[in-house]
Amino acid sequence: MAIKVIFVGPMGAGKTTAIRTISDFDPISTEAKNSDRASVDKAFTTVAMDYGELTLDSDRKLTLYGVPGQKHFDFIWPIVANGALGGALLLDCSRDDWQESLLYYVDSFRDLADTGSLVLALNRAADEDGVADSVIQLCEKIDLALPFFFTDPRNKDDVYLLLEALAINAELDSELYGDMH
Amino acid sequence: MSLVCDELRVTQMQSIKSYGFESLEREILAKQIRTISTRMHKSWQYDGEGKDGDIVLVKKPTQVATHTIQVYVGKQPIDQSLPFLESPVRMMQLISLLEQLTPSETSVIDSINNLITNSRHSQFVIPCKFGLVGFNTKDKKLSTKQRSLATFIKNLASEPGEQFSLKHAKSVPADCTWEFTASYRTVAWHLAKLQGLRKIKDLSQGQSIKLASWPRVTEWDPTPLNFKLATLVTRQFLPISQIARLCKTSEEEVVSFLHCCRACGITILQQQVKHPPANQPRHVVKDKESLGWLRNKIRTVFNYGH
Q: At residue B147, does pLDDT exceed 90?
């Protein structure tokens, strides 16, 4: 039994790091030389997907997928998202365009967002209260009350908290709608 | 299905009933009280004829005039020093009377919120009975010489709300050091929690509620129940009874949670009808055992206490 969780967000937001932090093994990555260093200054970036696993017991595991952040790879997003328990949208709040990214990615994964299966992981937020107020305003604008957490993708507890939010949401789904399926 | 959403007014509703009023008089009174409720800090609601309201307006002849309305607070007639109402009821007279019956309750939460958000000074202190409270309006934090949040909250709650106004503000003493600092929303949450299970009378049966934004419960009050309530109440409209059942708690706890959210500035939405559920899941993870394993494995800040 495998439960799929996806990590989405713009390039350089910390998706690969988050998977690496909790995966049982070093994630299998498909990285290539970054051709867009003007946007994000890192040498390599994910071009197909990252993959990691978190073993729950001998029969159960969590499979962790990181989708490529660049928008020209958006055709792959619904394929990776299919059948997922939920997703974590990582955002680098030190970037000027993080709010535009939030709206763009929430719109791209609206199916997940509408069912509470998308959580926001806010990385590198210097002014947490200010960022929180902005998130609340943005979410009210798009009529969603998305769970959001200040996350350091290198911190295991921070990444686990994202999984916890998704697990609770799935349990509530199960209790709310279990009889209907 | 009605999709009209209104911000829930969590102020305490007070019931007004009339006794001996004609049908037309009741209609007029109901309109007047609706209007008054929009103007006053406390919310009033006209509940028709009867003698069991918080305020009861009894129409009967007295020595003053043949059509005087005697006013009861509960089962007690009001203090004779307050004016009687005349029949027909004049709205300004009723407002004046209600204001006198309910002296303004400036809450500590509202006052602190007002100071933090509206003050032009970035740092100042307010002297209280238990010592100085430091305000940092830039970081939106409160500081105290108390050693724990629990003691701080308990002492704050015993202060009159009026104390937390700019007229009492002073400069931070040069030698001032603090023992404890917390975000003002954390303080607001715990003050609201201490106030207990405040009734929300305008949540009628069958109404569903939803939070307009995520409450940062992992910072304000990280408990498994709060996390579960926050997850459920932010995703869709549900009646309080169903929220309580799904989260395996009491309706009073749900109301208390909502009250705390409201104190932290989270808007509560309500909807009249909620059938069928608005957001169907994309899929249902039927294997609840796997979810249990997952949560057992990850053991977050809540240390798997669910």
A: no
